[in-house]
Amino acid sequence: MRLELSGLTRSFGSLVANDNIDLVIEPGEIHCLLGENGAGKSTLMNMLYGLLQPDSGHIVIDGEKVTIDSPAQAIARGIGMVHQHFMLVPVFTVAENIMLGREDARRGGVLDRTKANDRVRELSERYGLHVDPEALVEDIPVGVQQRVEIIKALANDAEVLILDEPTAVLTPSEIDELIEVMRQFKAAGTSIVFITHKLKEVKAIADRITVIRRGKVVGTAEPSASEEELAELMVGRAVDLVVDKEPADPGAVELEVRGLTVIDERGHTAVDNVDLEVRAGEIVALAGVQGNGQTELAEALLGLTPVAAGSISLSGRDLTKAGTRDRLEAGIGYVPEDRAHDGFVGSFTVAENLVLDLFRGEGFSSGMALRTSEIESNAEARVAEFDIRTQSIDLPVSSLSGGNQQKVVLARELSRPLKLLVASQPTRGVDVGSIEFLHKRIVHERDRGTAVLIVSTELDEIAALADRIAVMYRGRIVGIVAPDTPRDELGLMMAGASKQEAEVEATEHPTTLGSI
Amino acid sequence: MSDTEQVTPPADTAPPARPKERSGLPGWAIQTLVTLSAIVLALVVGAVLIIIGDDQVKESSSYFFSAPADTVTAALSAVGEAYKALLLGAVGSWNAIAESLTQATPLICGGLGVSLAFRTGLFNIGAQGQLIIGAIFAAWIGFAWHLPPGIHLIIAIIAGIVGGAIWGGLVGLLKARTGAHEVIVTIMLNYVAIYLLQWLLTTHAFQRPGRSDPISPVVDGSAQYPQFAGNRLHLGFLISILAAVFVWWLLNRSTVGFELRAVGANPDASRTAGMSVGRAYTLAMLIAGALAGLAGTQQVLGTDLPLTDGVAASVGFDSITVALLGRGTPVGTVLAGLLFGALNAGGLQMQLQTQTALTLTTVLQAVIVLFVAAPALVRSIFRFLPKERGIGVVLAKGWNG
What we know:
- The complex is a heterodimer of chains A (516) and B (401).
- Chain A has 516 residues and is an alpha/beta fold.
- Chain A folds into 3 domains: 3-235, 3-Layer(aba) Sandwich (Rossmann fold); 240-331 and 417-484, P-loop containing nucleotide triphosphate hydrolases (Rossmann fold); 347-416, no CATH class.
- Helix content of chain A is 33%, strand content 25%.
- In chain A, the strands form 5 sheets. Chain A has a 6-stranded mixed β-sheet with strand order 6-7-8-3-9-10, with helices on both faces. Chain A has a 6-stranded mixed β-sheet with strand order 16-19-20-13-21-22, with helices on both faces.
- Chain A is globular, with a radius of gyration of 24 Å.
- The two termini of chain A are 31 Å apart.
- Chain B has one domain (27-397): ABC transporter involved in vitamin B12 uptake, BtuC (Orthogonal Bundle), CATH 1.10.3470.
- The model of chain B is unreliable at 1-22 and 390-401 (pLDDT under 50).
- The interface between A and B is large, with 62 and 37 residues.
C-alpha cells in the first residue's frame, strides 16, 4: 500500500500544529518520522489514524483520495497504530486482548477462543514474534506486550503500521528484537512509520527519514547522515551532543544507603537490599529498564515511600525516618520522574512553582504572609538564569513546553544550597535543545561539590553524565561500572547479567544499536 | 540532506505552545460570560415553567385554535409580571435590597466554607451540619448565658465558629488519618447534626419552658446581631464580607493558603515538595467548618432568634451551589451569594403578588448552576462563548476527579 499525505494542515486556535505537510510512505519501507516533542508528529499521526481531522489537505491511499473519520475507518483501510502507552487489558490473555472488540462466537454466544488462539499463533510464527496466545498480559514482559499490540494491528490486516515512540519502554536487547521484527515486516511488504526522537535508532533501522520541526517538514535525510546532522535538522541549530565535563573530583561520601529494602503497594519487593554511596562532586547514574526499582529507590531517598529495612544517611546524618520536608531542608534536591505528576502544580504560575518547596523560607514569607514581591523577583531571576521560555511568570506552568517545565523544576531545586541532587529521568520528554542545557546545569552542580544521583533509562544520557554507573535489575544493583563501559555490556547488565557475563556475551554477540 | 534544511527560522524563538484552544479573554471574563449566559438560559427555562403553571394561560389555551393570540398574550403577561415582581422584590426598594442582603448573609459565609474546602481539593457537603452545630453552640450561649452587650455577642459568635470548626475539622481529621472520603463523612455528619438538634430541642436545657414544640428560648438581646433600621438586615452581613476578605487573603496571600491551594491542585507534587497533605485537609475542613458555623450564628443570632429545628433551612446545601457558581473563589462566592439572596428575597414577593410558587426561584438557582457546571452545554447554545479553563472546567468534571 502506498500512502500519501498531501498538504495536511491542522491548527489548534492560533497554533499551527501541522503546516502543509507532505509525506509519502512507499510499500514495504521503514519511514522514520523524527522530531522533538511538540514538533507535531503526534498530530500528524492522529490525523492519519482518524483521531483528528485536517483543516486542509488530504490523504491518498494507492492513488485514491480518502477521508478517515475514525480509528475504525483507519483500521478498515489497513492502517494500524501501536501507541506509546499500551491499550491492553492486563487480566486478559493475549488472545483475549486480540479478539477484544471483534469477538468471534460459536453458536449460543460462546466465545471462540480456539480460533483466536490459532490466529495469534499463526501471526506470531509468521513474523517471528514469539508470543504465547494463552499467557496473561500482566505476566509477560513489556517488550512482549508491545508485540501483542503489534499483533493486534496485524490481526486487522494492517498494511501500514504506525509505531509511536516504541522503544521508550524497552531494554536494549528488546529494542534489538523489535528492530528484527520490523525488518520481517518490511520483507513481508508492510510499511512502517516509526516515530521517535532517538537518533541512534533512526540510523539503525530507517530506510528514509523525514524530520519535522514546529509543524513543518524541514527536511529528509538518509540513514547514513551523522547524529549531529540529524540533531541539527531536528532542532534547527547545531547541537552539542556531548556534554563537556572535567573528570570528577569526588570528595567525602554524602549519600550513604545501606541494605535498603522497599516493599511497594502491591507487596512486591521493589528495592532489594541495596547499598549505594554517592560522593560530593560526582555523578552516579542509576541505569536500568523502567520498573526495576529505580523509581522506588529515588522516592525512598526523599521519604515519599516507606522503607522496609536498611538506612539512608546524608553527610553522616541518619535520615531513614525523617519526613520529606526535613530531607529537603537537610539539603536534598529532587527532580521527580514524572514532573507533571510530582514535580509541579500545573495550575500554579511559574512564579509560584519556583517556590513550591521554598515558600516557607524567610526570604519568601514573613509570619503567615507571603512576600509576593520577593516571589516575583525570584521568578524573574530564575527565568533569566535558566532561560525558561515563558511569556510571563504569571502564566500557569502547564502552558509551558515540557523542556521549560523541567527547567522550572530544576531551577527551583538548584536555587537552594544542596548536598545531594536526585534527578529521575531529568530529560524525559524534553526537546534536544533543553536537554543540552539541563545536562550542563547538572554537571555545573556537580562541579560545585554537590553529590548527584541520576536515574535514567536512556543510555545516551547516562553516557553523557555519569562518573559511575550503577545498573539496577529487579530491585538490585547488579554492578557498578565505569562510564566508558560499552553499550552492549550495559544493555546486558540491565537485563540482569553480571559484569563478567556481560563482558563475555557482548563481545560474542554484538547488537545493532551497540555497533553504531 | 535536502535543501529544505535551509528554511530554518533565524534563531531559536519561543517554544511551540501546547496545542490547546485559547482565546484572548482572561479567565474571569470567560467565567462571567458563561455565568451570565447560564442566568439567561435559566430565566428562559423559568419562563416556560411560569407559562405552564399559569391559570390564565391554561384557560386561554383551551380555545387556542380560535384565538391563539390570547394564549400568547396571557403567557407573555404571566412571565412579565412574575419576573417584574421578582426583580422589584429583590432590588425594587431599600427594604427589598436589605432583605436580599439578609438572605445573602449566611449563604456567603457557608459558600466561603465550601469554596475554601474545594480549593483544597475537598468536596464539603457538610456545610449544613456544620452550620447547625454552630447555631446550636451560638444559641445556647445566647439564651443560657447572660452577659453584658457586646461581649455576649462576641462570645456567642466565637462559640458558633468553634462548633462549626469541630464538626468540619472532624471530617478533615478522619480523611487525613484514615482516608475516609469527605463526601461520605460530611453527609453522615449532616444527619447526625440534624437529629442532634431535634433531640436537643426536646431536652430541658434547650426547649423553651412551657412549650411542647421544638423551639428554644429567644436569644438575649445582648447576643443578637445589631440590626440596621427598619428591616431584618444585621451586622452579620458586614461580617460575611469581612470573612470573604479574610478567605481571599488566606488563599492568595498567606503561606497556609499557598499550601492549601497546592494540595488541592496537585497533592502528589505537594507531598513531594515537603507539604503535609493530611495537615492541609484537616486545616481546610477546620476553617470551612468555622465559616459554616459563622453562618449558623447569623441565622440564629441575626434572623431567627430562637433556635428551631428549621434553623438551617436549606442554607447549608444552598451554600454548595453558591460555591459552585462562585467557582470556588471568594469574590465569586460573594457575588453568587448576593444573586441567590436576591432570588430568595424576590421570590417571596413574586409568590405574594403573582401566585407564582416560591419554588420557582429554587428551580432558577438549580438551573443556573446546572448550566454553569455544564459549560459545554451553554457553549452549544451560545456559540460565541470561548472555552473555559481552570476551576470551571474542574467543576464540570467533578471535584475529586
